[in-house]
Amino acid sequence: MSTLQSGYDLTVTSYSPEGRLLQLEYVQRRVHSSQTITAITCTDGLVLFAEKSIDAFRKGFVECRMMVFLNKINILVGTGLFQDFQRIIERAKTDSISFKENFSNFLTGKLLASRIASLIHLQTRYWYIRPLCCSLFLGSVNLNVPELYIITQAGHYFKCFSGSLGEKSEIFKITIDKFLDNQLTCRKSIKKIYSLYQQIKKNFNFNYLEIACFSKENFRIKTTISCNLMIEIQRKFNFS
Questions:
Q1: Is the dihedral of CA 91, 95, 100, 106 positive or negative?
Q2: How big is the chain by its Cα radius of gyration, in Å?
Q3: What is the pLDDT of residue 178?
Q4: Whole-angstrom Cα distance, residue 95 to residue 90?
Q5: CA-angle at 65, arms to 231 and 201, nearest 5°
């Protein structure tokens, strides 16, 4: 009898005879097949990319966005199930508001990342709740210095300089690591990674892509970058 038929995947705390946690494996597969998100720290700031769901875009679901601005210094970008991402956003907003009321300051990136990771980790410890099917990037600005954190679906978090999550993320990681050696600016990084999306993704449309940037030109993280820059990048890419 297989592990699926034996019921080892009914709860997150049940180990299969092979020592596997099947529910966590399901979450990992779902995240690896979701929309690709990318982030990179540049010489003059931080750039984050989020890919919209094509089905949600065609049906006009404007609210199904995987990029959320928590406040002036923190932004969350996620991949996986949109409902689980919203659950994390609600908790992050609650913690951010309460911290602001008590200490008259915003949550720093490291503290916010640890709280979100604790929430995701708790979902994997009890049999009566299911794990959250979502992995995230947290972009933060601490004393005008951009910081980037990765929060995995297992509840781990760590600071990094670049990364990619979702479908074909391994190809993105290899290429983006080369960009770090060249010490690119935010504007050049947007052009490079946008071209990378077009090369790797079939039938890619820039309307499916959201970009957030913190740099000397865009001092506060509050809105996505205008599509005018994306149209210019697409025009140059078509003639190159």
A1: negative
A2: 19
A3: 81
A4: 9
A5: 50
Check if the beta carbon of residue 224 is closer than 8 Å to that of residue 212: yes
3-state secondary structure the chain: CCCCCCCCCCCCCCCCCCCCCHHHHHHHHHHHCCCCEEEEEECCEEEEEEECCHHHHHHCCCCCCCEEECCCCEEEEEEECHHHHHHHHHHHHHHHHHHHHHHCCCCCHHHHHHHHHHHHHHCCCCCCCCCCCEEEEEEEEECCEEEEEEECCCCCEEEECEEEECCCHHHHHHHHHHHHHHCCCHHHHHHHHHHHHHHHCCCCCHHHEEEEEEECCCCCCCCCCCHHHHHHHHHHHHHC
- Distance in angstroms (rounded) separating the CA atoms of residues 165 and 72: 24
Q: Could you report the per-residue pLDDT of 20-46, keeping only the tens digit for each?
A: 888 888 888 999 888 899 999 988 888
Closest CA to 36 of 66, 73, 76: 66
pTM of the model as a whole: 0.85
Neighbours of 125 (CB within 10 A): 11
